[in-house]
Amino acid sequence: MAAAGNGSTAEEIDAGVRKKAKKISGIGADGWFTETAPMWPGQKFSLALDRASSPSSRDSSILFHEQSEFQEILVFQSAQYGKVFAIDGILQLTERDAFTFHEMMSHLPLFSHRNPERVLIVGGGDGLVLQEVLRHREVRKVTLVEIDPMVIRASKECLRLVPPELYDDPRVEIIHADAAEYVQDPEHHEKFDVILADTLDPLGPAESLFEPEFYECMHDALRAGGIVCTQGENMFIHFELIRDLVACCKDIFGHAEYAITSVPSYPCGQIGFIVARKGRDNRSCSSPIRRPTPVFQKQLKWYNPQMHQAAFVLPEYVKQELSGDATGTNANGNAITNAATGYANAGYYHDDNDGDEEGDRCILSQCVIS
């Protein structure tokens, strides 16, 4: 094998990229994993490692830890939440509550589509969304675009929350590429019935997956009547982002909604989904048009038709803001505004009446909401 320019072989260089880091992001000397991120300032979430009593025993709780070309990947055994998967020190899922997110992300759009034959999964290398998609007999082809092969390797070797052979299902095609570039390719226009964007938070490389251009490309990749479902962040701490994403998707797709679920290990215990349908059919996705068979239903822990409908029932301030009706009346019939609730003063909302004739710029770059 030819040596690289510095005298090392290509294998040695590759091993250097993938070597275990000495310091593990998020894990302290006390044997606790603590997640901190700029997207949820002023708060932390911590989980104890399974064997936190001494450094030597803590090491045995680390099941996988490597630095890939793109990110730091960690799988560890926790004391109460089972196996935990983290990327760059940010918790992605736990064995204890992952189903509350992945079942809803998958089945909300899939049961809202009459015949979802072709499905695109953006990210999702852990395989949990893939597992839910493959439960649908209508699905003939699933394309999983995961930029980092190491995510799939960690899932197969150590996380093992889905059978490793799931990735070898004849209906599954795995592509290691940048999802933003993949959906831009004209070859994939009008190709998919459902797109599931199981993305990271909009930090670092994942920022491009929250830009209007990415949503426009997903729109182009959908067939008529197709549905996209994306990770929609937390309504308590990311409300401006949610509001702007929904408004942007309404403009691009014609119809968009926000749905919610509970995930105890996520910030504030809540996360949402942006669900948008392409084309003139602006029918809400809040009621399933197909239902799981009894056999299918027994395989699930969280989703059912009632939970589907309940996911779209939103708190009043969220419903009003997302519908564009930010005012109401009090018991005497007098008009009230969000300012009366204290939300506006707390900095939750943009000023839509600032005199900007071109429309208000949302926190998504290059997006103008008129």
Automatic annotation (TrEMBL):
Belongs to the spermidine/spermine synthase family. Keywords: Polyamine biosynthesis, Transferase. One of its GO terms (cellular component) is cytosol. It comes from Pseudo-nitzschia multistriata. GO terms for biological process: spermidine biosynthetic process. The active site is at residue 198. Transmembrane segments: none annotated. GO terms for molecular function: spermidine synthase activity. CDD domains: AdoMet_MTases (cd02440). This is PABS domain-containing protein. Residues 30-278 form the PABS domain. HAMAP family: Spermidine_synth. PROSITE patterns: PABS_1, PABS_2. The keyword Iron does not apply. InterPro entries: PABS, PABS_CS, SAM-dependent_MTases_sf, Spermi_synthase, Spermidine_synt_N, Spermidine_synt_N_sf.
